[in-house]
Design goal:
The chain is α/β, with parallel strands linked by helices. Among the domains are: 103-196 and 360-580, Rossmann fold (3-Layer(aba) Sandwich), CATH 3.40.50; 636-751, Immunoglobulins (Immunoglobulin-like, Sandwich). 30% of the residues lie in helices and 17% in strands. It is built from 23 helices and 25 strands. The chain has a six-stranded mixed sheet with strand order 10-15-14-13-11-12, sandwiched between helices. Strands 4-3-2-1-9 form a five-stranded parallel sheet. A hairpin with a 4-residue loop joins strand 22 and strand 23. The longest helix is centred in the N-terminal third of the chain and has 18 residues, at 124-141. The protein binds 1-deoxynojirimycin. 1-deoxynojirimycin (NOJ) is lined by residues 103, 147, 200, 279-280, 509.
Length: 752
Amino acid sequence: MPGTPNDEEALRARAEELLAAMTPAEKAGQLTQYFFFSLPEGAEADPALGLDPAAQPREVQAALERGEVGSLLFVTDPARINELQRRAVEGSRQGVPLLFGFDVVHGLRTILPVPIAMAASWDPEVIARGQSVAAREARAVGIHWTFAPMVDIARDPRWGRMIEGAGEDPFLGAAVAAAQVRGFQGDVLGAAEHVIAGPKHFAGYGYAVGGRDYDEVNLADAELWNTVLPPFKAAIEAGAGTVMTAYMDLNGIPATANAWLFTEVLRSVWGFEGFVVSDANAVRNLTTHGFAPDLTSAGARALAAGTDMEMAITDPAFAHLPEALDGGRVETAALDAAVRRVLRAKLRLGLLDDPYVDEARAREVLADPQHREIARIAAERAAVLLKNDDDLLPLDRGALESLAVIGPLAASKRDTLGPWVFDFDLGETVPVLDGIRRHVGDAVRVEYAQGVPVVQRTFPSMFDMFGGNRPEDPEGFDPGTAFDEAVRIAREADVAVVVLGEWQNMIGEAASRSSLHLPGRQLELLQAVVATGTPTVALVMNGRPLDLRWAAEHVPAILDIWYPGTQGGAAVANLLFGEVAPAGRLPFSWPRTVGQVPMFYSHTRSHEPENQQRRYWDEASTPLFPFGHGLGYGRFTYGGLTVDRSSVPLDGTVTVAVEVTNTGDREGDEVVQLYLHQRSGTASRPVRELKGFRRVPIAAGATERVEFEVGPDARRYWNAAARDWVLDPSPFDVWVGGDSTAELGTSFDVIA
Ligand code: NOJ
């Protein structure tokens, strides 16, 4: 059947047929994606978005009738999707169906932990399963394509979008990127119950100067090739069907019109065959950048650079492509190549044969309880136990009479879900307080106090127009008495659980911060609770490292629960009471203070390594918690580290083996990590780099042998002097352990 993923030739022929019948305006239309917003009732549009909710549907509908829309985003109601699809199919001359895209970042209705949390699971399988649930729900309502995963490396936590990625490391980032693409897309592009993935933002967006969202990025080639590009490459190798451009200037050229990125790296070097979409309004904004003099030039230059589709909030630059064609600023071949890519995606999805979605089936799929189950497991696997003095955790339910749960975030359903979600169901969302109450039932008295008022950002978030996104104190909240009330219930309880962090609209897009302090009076509240002498557990809700210096010194147990999603509270209760053991690991180095950022473990050695730890006279230059850190309820020891060969040729592979023993008295997972260091060569190489990891369940008292292959791919790097990839002969150090400070090491030689 034409249009099925297997019949490549028939699919190409059909695309050619469609293309041949199109006018230049229709072709440009196929390359245009419009926002199509219906704001929740009573919601007000944000003028900063340039969005007039009344005018915008009129603009889109007129374009639909002309057959000049290729895709829409932000529609999630299956009935509405069918209605709009019908207009495209039945109401336009060519009748080419629309692609519906959406930011399904960490779930549609069932919300998974935020992406940085999923990365903290160091568990590609759970990540893939989670995103396949997201894909299933999305496809059921008629969405064909997600603008995810975000695979931007982030080393500066001031940048709010760090939450959407996998942290600082290219190796972990590549594994997480590939797992997400597998989860979203399934085995083949166009697979049933899956969506097309769109890794973003190509490339370098995480390096915005000062951590200020959208600001320029200046990145040397070595940093690009060795650190920034590997997760993209992994996503492409996993089969990602689209790629999204980035907003900012990369080395002085706006990424959206950067031919080197799209034509050279993506298509020539990596052989990418899918299509490239711009970020929202990024083609138009080439004029704002001071790059293109007008919209015609903006459209022509973006297309020539390799951006196939323009994502437009309104008034697209690509509408001027026919004019650019007439003026010789765009070549027909370039326009046709882009249209072909978009048509092929539609054909692979089978849209030409069956463009509509089954509305009744959508309801069934969304209600599937299995989805909530996977969200809970993901939240359990993502949590990172940062500290656990004297094994305060897990709590012994039998020995507890009372528990104080404290802090506004403990009871906030919306914040439990994190940013970048729109179609969630608050009714089925379990915040920490509810999760704990359900878990202990009547056996333990659980008292709750908010303690401090919610904190607002100093200027509104662009997402505030979506209902419930601005935090509010509950009716009757009295800031005058709330603090003392929280301290009182802490004093009277056997254990206090304080939930701290950032409100979800403080992180994400357009949510950079100049400090990492806990917003509002949360630290003061924590200090007052600890001062009661009641054993205290801090639960941190965050998508970036926060300043936890005081907590790290004075609070016995700290569990990072991130924004854990729909089943967050249930997962947290299971972790607190030891139904499951935490085994997540930090996907970033946790700085002590914002003054240390950017901070990452894989820096080079410098001429003065002995002083490495004393770079600042007023603060240590070590992180508060290292990359890869995370405790469990078991105890793991490492031994018997071996390499199977002491020397190998340049293209040789060494097998590294280690034995990990769980010396504790309960089963748990350990994330075994391998780090590599090249001692000398034609460039200085990082002190260590992650080159292997495995999350392994180990029974109490058992020993597991774990093996890693360290081949040429693990040692090859892009060298600024050679301006090419190189493999150097050198002695190599290897460490294996539970975080990036692992001390158990050995070495081998690579000889020319
Ligand atoms: C802008 C963001 O940068 C991008 O990540 C997102 O996919 C689009 N808006 C669409 O919402």
